[in-house]
Design a protein that fits this description.
The protein is mainly alpha-helical and about 475 residues long. Helix content is about 85%, strand content about 0%.
């Protein structure tokens, strides 16, 4: 299953990357791209916060309830769908009626022309938010029943529609992509809804009279508050970036998107399987199987992440100078490159944290998650005060890294305490090679070393990781055959 999901995921990533390259070749790092990307981050934040209302622990909660009483589990499904329809109607109506107020909260530094365009886009995307959240809610219900493939098939829809929409940018400008995203969310919502009614059972029940829903909301509350606190980072970052010159929002967002694509290839399918299977294993208190599952996830994800990051560092400047064209200046490309380099440690810590965070959700450790989120945002804020005045925009990724280290360590502690095991360092040894490679690569760049020297250094690092590479290939081959 993992191999099939990976193939679908990689196909989605290739389409999305091609779209992003052409997008930047057309618009460059400009006012339009700054506004488009910052509004997109606002919509994504609302999406995460709304979905987190109950969905973070829905899978383990539903699995437990289904084992006890199938009828009550079906009633919970019906109540959850009604609850989200009502909640989204209120939230999306507020976004549609008061877009300028929401934009101002997130972008104090925007000039009037940027704020007007951002308000127009947010108003259109208030409908996309409804479709996207409902899609994610239904997808979590399907995940709880181990229907995983449909999400990865439908994940191709938005990238493909966005790619096609690039043809119309000469006439419609950035609005072509705004409406393509809306269309993509609508298609996904309709498709997954039809699939859901064919595969899953449910019983409609008034959510205000469903005691199981109240119990789910009560258990989800610490996770919800924690998610809200944790993702207030988006509010802080978007406001800070709005004060930088035009183009800096685009450059920062693009450097993050590069890691998003790398992480999607390395982490996404295995994490979905981990979350679904761990929810059942925790109910059985099968700690040995959870250890094996966590070990396989860490081993596969870490190695893929390391290899993809190493390759991107090596080809970054020659590749992106070629593909982005004249719309991105040499100075802007340098900023993008250094943001990418400085974001590597943050994303390493984040990638390692992900499996542990998922298991923390499965264990329903809401209080731990809340405390971790509060510590994260406090450390992030203090780090910003220390780094931003001296490093400018480069202080953002450095602050994110410092706070993420605390996060990763806290999630590991929660999971290892449950598993009663020592840290599985053998699955994260590849991080040492990556850090060594990054330092070595930067020294070679500083010394203006020739291409053959950087190539030889990359080959040497890959040889040191040969054992891990062969181990991963053996695992993927076994999964494919089975």
């Amino acid at each position: 299953m993992i191999f099939t999901l990976n193939l679908l995921n990689i196909l989605k990533i290739f389409i999305a990357i091609a779209h992003q390259i052409i997008f930047l070749r057309i618009f460059g790092a400009s006012l339009d791209t700054d506004v488009y990307l910052v509004v997109f981050s606002i919509i994504q934040l609302f999406n995460v916060i709304l979905v987190s209302t109950i969905i973070d622990i829905y899978v383990p909660f539903y699995s437990q309830l289904k084992n006890k009483n199938k009828i009550r589990a079906d009633e919970l499904v019906g109540s959850v769908i009604i609850f989200f329809i009502l909640l989204l109607t209120v939230v999306c109506s507020a976004l549609y009626l008061y877009p300028s107020l929401i934009v101002k909260i997130f972008t104090f530094g925007f000039a009037d022309n940027k704020s007007i365009l951002a308000s127009e886009i947010l108003k259109i995307w208030s409908f996309a938010l409804f479709f996207n959240v409902m899609y994610n809610v239904i997808n979590q219900i399907l995940t709880a029943n181990l229907y995983l493939k449909i999400h990865y098939k439908l994940s191709l829809v938005i990238p493909v529609i966005n790619f096609i929409a690039l043809v119309f940018t000469d006439t419609w400008g950035i609005k072509a992509l705004v409406y393509s995203f809306l269309l993509g969310t609508l298609v996904n919502f309709v498709a997954i809804t039809f699939y859901f009614f064919r595969r899953c059972s449910l019983k409609w029940k008034n959510p205000f009279l469903n005691s199981d829903l109240y119990d789910l909301l009560r258990q989800s509350l610490p996770f919800y508050i924690g998610k809200y606190i944790y993702h207030s980072e988006t509010l802080i970052v978007s406001n800070l970036l709005s004060f930088f010159p035009t183009g800096h929002i685009t450059l920062f967002q693009y450097s993050q998107r590069l890691f998003k694509y790398i992480s999607s290839v390395a982490n996404s399918p295995t994490l979905s399987v981990l979350y679904a299977k761990a929810s059942q294993l925790v109910l059985q208190d099968n700690k040995e199987e959870i250890k094996k599952l966590l070990g396989i996830t860490l081993k596969t994800n870490t190695l893929l992440f390391v290899l993809l990051v190493m390759g991107n560092i090596w080809i970054f400047k020659p590749l992106y100078t070629l593909v982005f064209g004249e719309k991105v200046s040499v100075e802007q490309l340098d900023v993008l490159y250094y943001l990418f380099i400085i974001l590597i440690p943050y994303n390493i810590a984040w990638a390692i944290q992900l499996p542990f965070a998922r298991i923390t959700f499965v264990l329903k450790k809401g209080e731990n998650f809340l405390v971790i989120s509060i510590k994260y945002i406090v450390v992030f804020s203090i780090s910003l005060c220390l780094f931003l005045p001296f490093l400018g925009i480069y202080g953002l990724p450095l602050s994110m890294f410092v706070s993420q280290v605390f996060n990763a360590n806290a999630y590991m502690k929660v999971v290892y305490e449950y598993l009663l095991t020592s840290k599985m360092l053998k699955y994260t040894n590849s991080i040492i090679y990556l850090c060594g490679y990054i330092v070595g690569q930067e020294i070679l760049v500083y010394l203006d070393a020739p291409l053959y020297a950087t190539t030889s250094f990359l080959v040497l690092c890959c040889l040191l990781m040969t054992h891990r590479i062969l181990e991963m290939c053996k695992y993927l081959l076994a999964k494919t055959i089975s």
